[in-house]
Amino acid sequence: MGWCGLRGLRYSGRDSSLQTGPTMSEQQKMEPPQEGDHVVVLTGAGISADSGLATFRGGGGLWEGHRVEDVATPEAWARDPATVWRFYQMRRAALLDVEPNAGHRALAELERALPERGACLTLISQNVDDLHQRAGSTVLSMHGQLQRLRCETCGYFQDGLQYLDTEAFLPCPKCEDPSLRPDIVWFGEMPYKLEAIENAMFEVTHFLACGTSGAVYPASGLLSTARSVGAQTFVNALDAPENLGSRDVFLQGSASSVLPRWVAEFLAS
Ligand code: OAD
């Protein structure tokens, strides 16, 4: 695992050995959760799309309206902090108008149900919204959180602010650095929770990637890690992501309709 980076910058096109996986109707039978199993789910922006939050790539995506280099790098924060601040605080404000959807709720239900079978779930999210948390999940947020701010000088974290002025910086209450930064992992920075993620991937028996295009490393590498340790692998997205493999079961469709069915089938199996 390593620095957060766009896969496309070092790797172009699709691996020719990768093909679209079997669809739901062709899939091998889902192995039911058993004592000691460890289910790992990785989510991306697609799971929150049905709640009304924009994804990053594709038509109307956040990276169509903004250049990554202008808003999602430490260099952008140093060069033009006002633009970076406005970008993240507007996205933070948008959280006040959205709710978790059936996809988020299904994963929270899975987390509650698995321990009754002696199994467990690790939920890893690249998302910086708080919809998993509001649905009741415990989340490893590897790219940070919109609602958190952090001081680059003294390391202080500021949580729990409902509303922020999108035009005015907030000084650090501890060391008086004039501007707390969004607690977001920018390109070139180290994602959070890598040790916990690595530990979960040592034990994974079932892996689901949901709503992620597989474009950003190291999150994009988790699917192939899961395959390499023999886990059953599932992928849910609207379009086949670039890291989809021939052995993955591809569950095409919106997360809010696919995940409740997938979780119900899994727990009934
Ligand atoms: P992307 O925008 O790259 O990909 C969204 C994925 O969700 C695509 O595969 C879509 O097919 C799928 N999708 C869209 N709507 C969906 C729906 N309703 N149900 C299910 N799937 C749906 O978003 P991410 O993969 O999350 O990082 O992007 C990864 C990272 O790139 C982000 O965390 C962010 C960004 O740059 C940083 O800013 C560090």
Task: Describe the protein in words.
- Helices cover 32% and strands 17% of the residues.
- It is of the alpha/beta class.
- The protein has two domains: 1-11 and 19-53 and 100-143 and 190-269, TPP-binding domain (Rossmann fold, 3-Layer(aba) Sandwich), CATH 3.40.50; 55-97 and 148-184, SIR2/SIRT2 'Small Domain'.
- A six-stranded parallel sheet has the order 4-3-2-8-10-11, with helices on both faces. A three-stranded antiparallel sheet has the order 6-5-7. A two-stranded antiparallel sheet has the order 1-9.
- The longest helix is centred in the N-terminal third of the chain and has 14 residues, at 81-94.
- The two termini are 33 Å apart.
- The structure holds 2'-O-acetyl adenosine-5-diphosphoribose (OAD).
- 2'-O-acetyl adenosine-5-diphosphoribose is lined by residues 4, 44-46, 49-50, 55-57, 61, 72, 126, 143, 185, 211-213, 215-216, 236-239, 241, 254-255.
Q: Mean pLDDT, rounded to whole units? A: 89
As laid out across the biggest beta sheet, the strand order is 4-3-2-8-10-11
Q: What percent of residues adopt helix (DSSP H or I)?
A: 25-40%
Q: Note the gap between the termini.
A: 33 Å
- Ranges where pLDDT stays below 50 over 5 or more residues in a row are 6-21
CATH topology of the largest domain: Rossmann fold
The helix/strand order is: EHEHHHHHHEHEEEEHEEHEEH
Question: Which CATH first-tier class of the largest domain would you pick?
Answer: Alpha Beta
State the CATH architecture of the largest domain. 3-Layer(aba) Sandwich
Strand content: 15-25%
Number of domains: 2
Bound molecules: 2'-O-acetyl adenosine-5-diphosphoribose
C-alpha geometry: globular
For this entry, what is the oligomeric state of its chains?
single chain
Number of helices: 11
- The CATH superfamily of the largest domain is TPP-binding domain
